[in-house]
Amino acid sequence: MKTVPDEVFLTKKITHKVCCSPSDTFDAKKIAHFFGVEFKIVHLEDEFRRTIIRYFIDEYKRGRTPNPCYFCNDWIKFGLLFDVMVKDGMDYISSGHYARIIDGKLFRAKNVEKDQSYFLASIKREKLNKILLPNGEYDKEEIRNIAKELGLHVHSKKDSQDLCFIPDNNISEFLKENGVQEKNGLIIDASGNVIGTHKGLFNYTIGQRKIGIATGSRMYVKSKNVDKNLLIVGNKNDLYSSKFVVTDLNFLQEIPKKAKGYVKVRKKFKEVPCNIFIENNKMFVESLEPIFAVTPGQIAVVYDEEGAVMVSGVIDKEGWN
After folding, report:
1. Checking CA distances to 31, which of 102, 152, 158, 175 falls within 20 to 30 Å?
2. Is the pLDDT at 161 greater than 90, yes or no?
3. SS3 for 235?
4. Strand partners of residue 244
């Protein structure tokens, strides 16, 4: 029989915020009652709207593709909520994320398919020694079995797939409801030829194949020009890059200005060997394999050869010029 991770019993209180769904709060309360520990709800809805949702909307207005989960971990879960828990006297903060913290470094989870280190790479380095990630040593099925063996009736919950603040995943409608105007414009190819009309830039993201017009060949969204309201498309080969710039850096290790690593530019994407160059708080990434659809606004995370996060940041632009 699987044993319960020791970390489960290290806490004297479960602190939970409400931002995802009422069922999560209900389940957390049941678990707290099961273990006989104090349960506390911390309301951060206003801060969530002021930071995460505001950032999400503003990035779309800039023609970029945001990554709210990455920033939520930094600003909310391991930011404001972390501070509340430390102030309440917590020695450690335990989380159900699939990743590992070893000797003050953030590592990938043993289960690569469930690994969430990409989204956790925003956490500030000095906080890692106060965070416990017991799930990182297990796969999802093992965790469910542990919960089942303990008699916790939360082991059959479905995995969350959508943004917590857009449960129906209708991003377009959400943006329109929050004042982002849907303005039609021209679609042009890489040579500047007009080939159609788009239905508002926020309805498209870099690498998207369905652009709503027939062109006789497969075309993909290559970039967006917000100032001129243009959607630029190209064939698949046009979307591969080997150089891009990353800003808003978060260092999780001491690294030299020039280093080697493995870069990941989206959650469901393999890590690619790369060279990185740090200058003026910008990271210039040169991948040793071309990467498809490098997307401004998304997150780049660089790992070392042991699977620990070195540095992360926001993709600013393709190319170095």
Report:
1. 102
2. no
3. coil
4. 285, 318
Catalytic residues: 72, 164
What residues does 186 pair with on adjacent strands?
Answer: 197, 230
Among candidates 121, 113, 269, which has minimal Cα distance to 206?
Answer: 269
Span 75-87, pLDDT tens digits: 999 999 999 999 9
pLDDT for 2 beyond 50: no
In 3D space, the residue among 23, 21, 25 whose CA is nearest the CA of residue 42 turns out to be: 25
User: Which amino acid, residue 93?
Assistant: I
Amino acid at 166: I
Say if residues 129 and 78 touch (Cβ distance below 8 Å). no
Q: Which residues pair with 309 in a beta bridge?
A: 303
Whole-prediction pTM: 0.89
**Do 283 and 245 meet the contact criterion of CB atoms below 8 Å apart?**
yes
Rounded CA-CA distance 290/285 in Å is 12
Question: pLDDT tens for residues 183-206?
Answer: 999 999 988 999 999 999 999 999
Give the CATH fold of the 239-318 domain.
Elongation Factor Tu (Ef-tu); domain 3 (2.40.30)
Estimate the share of the chain in helix, then strand, then coil, as percent rounded to the nearest 5. Answer: 30, 30, 40
